[in-house]
Each structure stands twice: as structure tokens, then as C-alpha cells.
Amino acid sequence: MKIYKTKDYDAMSLKAATILASQITLKPDSVLGLATGSSPVGMYKKLVEWYQTGNLDFSQIMSVNLDEYRGLSPDNEQSYRYFMNTHLFDHVNIRKECTHVPDGLTENPDQACEDYEALIESLGGVDIQVLGMGHNGHIGFNEPCSEFAKITHCVDLAPSTIEANKRFFESEADVPRQAYSMGIGTIMKAKKILLIVSGADKAETLYRALTGPVTPEVPASILQFHKEVYVVADEAAMSCFK
Question: Catalytic residue among 143, 153, 165, 234, which?
Fold first, then answer.
């Protein structure tokens, strides 16, 4: 595990973007595992800038996203497909048919999960998986629980996650109560993992995830067992490390 401590969110975003851009440059047909939320926004902004200046090419890239809310259509402004289009896909030369996000409107959730897992395998797996981390240590929508979820699954969102995400909706009642998420086993199959964390409010959880016991009560702690993890966190998020 390589840990990079940066001064602030902007420096964190730049470092994370550099790691992802290196992957794209060294393997132009990479399969990128992508994440949403506030953590990767700055990283995506830098990648778009480098594409627009001719320093990055997405034409052969394929992508799979970590998760999606159940019940939201791709054109819903709070869906993760909409997020990815807005922050990255609409601004670079990636082929939309090569970008994949779980289908939030599928009628059969079990089949949707099986199909998404099969899709990832058909692409040859993920070359580098981007992760943020929730206040409770969740990665993707893998919430603290009694055991690690192995594959893509439908998740009941924890109250703390609903609370954290309500700022994106008109009210808490509008926040979906379920989501589709890659499982911990799926995430751990990625060849490389890039974890980006910002803010003092996540400092204690990040410390527990990287130094404490590996437990499904802190889902991100499983990353201690992965062979190639890059952690990029700002000073505030690293404040519990001495």
C-alpha cells in the first residue's frame, strides 16, 4: 500500500488524476472502475483539462462504475450515470457504449446484479478501481455489516449514508433507500485500487481502515489485503496519523 499525503483537496485531486492518467497512458485500452460523490470531482476535472489540452486520450478506454441508486433513471440529475456524463464522459472522447453503470430501473434486481458481474468479467476485469470512502467506512455502497459482500448486489442504505446523501436531494424522503453496488469481492479483484479521501470528518475512519483490524464493520479495511493500493488523502483526512 502506498499512501500519499497532500496539502488539501486540490492537491489530492491532482495526485489522484496523475495516477489515473498514468494508467491511461501506459495502457490506452484500460478498464477503469469509476466512482461518484464529492471526492473524485476534482480528479475528473483535471482529467478533462488534460484531455482538452491534448495530453490524454480516452478513445480506447472502457469503464464500469461502482454503483447506482435503485429506482433512478439515467437522465435523473441524481443518478450516477448523469453524474458521470456531467463530470467526465460528456467532456472527453470516451465512447459512451464503452461506459457502464448499473441499471437503476431494472425490474429484476438479482438478474441485474448477475448481469453486471458477468459484464465486468467479460471485459477482463478492472485495471484500476477508484474508490471514495464514506464516514462509516463504506466503499461503493458496501455498508458496515456482519460479513463482506462478495459480488455485485442490491443494498439497503444505512441511515448514515442516507443522511450524508440527502444534501443532493430536495429532502431526505427523496433519497433512494436502495442501491446496486459492486461487492467487496468484485472490488478486490481489480488489479489496482486508488482510494481518495478528503476532510477531517473522515480522519478517524480512515485511520481505522488502514491500521485497525480488517472487519466488515469498517468495509474499507479490506483494502489492507490488496496487493496494490494507492491512498491519496489530504492533511485533514490524515490528521489521526502521527
Answer: 143
